[in-house]
Specification:
The protein is mainly alpha-helical. It has helices at 6-17, 19-44, 55-82, 89-104, 107-116, 122-138, 142-166, 188-207, 216-236, 242-271. The chain has one domain (6-42, 55-271).
Length: 273
């Protein structure tokens, strides 16, 4: 079905008109997906003494999964980038979605998301990076500390570079609740939140004592919910187009997969004699 067909435009307008329940449904589905993936990993993806395969096989499986995520995220990013522009069909749908949200979203809901969006602010993520660095240094985890800093810095450089390549202008946002300047594509809040809270969840799961194993799943679920809510808030506040946020999720997920994959490879090498 063509992107500029009446059916697609009607569907986009209907989705934007019910953006809040759509956000809630998507968030619930995401949490179910995280829980399902976690259970699969715990059952089939954790090496134990009774496991049939050696640790290297599990590492290769994790790296293959991360590689698949990178390929999928890159494909989504490339598809969105190819269809950008005010004169392109995707750009027209983006504008329709943003305009419909502007016309239908209650101001009370926008006030809530105007608070939640600060989880992806540069100041918030920078403070988190500094706090995490100090904590890891105190724990004498120098390698993890370096990886933590590189995850933040690398994502920031990647986002800045891509923004300046595409130079996409932001949608008009005059709700007086949130303001953003600079280029729009991809969303730095979306990619930054995925990397920051994903890396935080990974480090907590890695470093918390074994008696806290029961909180591993809630940690991952909370990280996913924070990243998704932060990115979605940018669309609801009309400071980003929907495709900006999707591209931010894609680039952030790819970079997170690279960082965690590199750490797991380093972890495996450290175990070898």
């Amino acid at each position: 079905m063509a992107l500029d067909s009446p059916a697609v435009r009607d569907a986009v307008q209907a989705l934007a008109s019910h953006a809040l329940p759509a956000f809630g449904i998507a968030l619930v589905l995401l949490l179910f997906a995280v829980c399902g993936f976690w259970l699969l990993v715990q059952r089939y993806g954790v090496h134990r003494e009774t496991s049939r395969f050696p640790p290297l096989a599990y590492l290769l499986a994790y790296l293959a999964l991360g590689f698949g995520l990178i390929i999928g995220a890159a494909s989504l990013f490339a598809e969105i980038a190819e269809n950008l522009g005010d004169g392109r069909k995707l750009g027209q749908l983006d504008q329709l979605f943003s305009d419909t949200i502007h016309a239908t979203m209650p101001i009370g809901v926008l006030r809530v998301f105007a608070v939640l969006t600060h989880f992806g602010d540069t100041l918030t993520l920078t403070s988190l990076c500094i706090a995490g660095t100090l904590w890891l240094l105190r724990q004498r985890q120098r390698a993890l500390c370096l990886a933590w800093v590189l995850a933040f810095v690398g994502n920031a450089l990647l986002n800045w570079t891509v923004k300046n390549i595409f130079e996409r202008t932001r949608p008009v946002h005059d709700n007086a609740l949130s303001f953003a300047d600079g280029w729009s594509f991809p969303s730095g809040h979306a990619s930054g939140s995925v990397v920051a809270y994903g890396m935080l969840a990974y480090l907590l799961v890695r470093l918390l004592p074994a008696r806290f194993a029961s909180v591993h799943l809630p940690v991952w679920a909370l990280a996913a919910a924070l990243a998704f809510t932060t990115g979605s808030s940018r669309v609801l506040l009309q400071v980003h187009f929907a495709s900006d946020v999707l591209a931010g999720f894609a680039s952030g997920s790819a970079w997170l997969a690279v960082c965690i994959g590199a750490l797991e490879l380093w972890r495996y090498r450290q175990r070898q004699p």
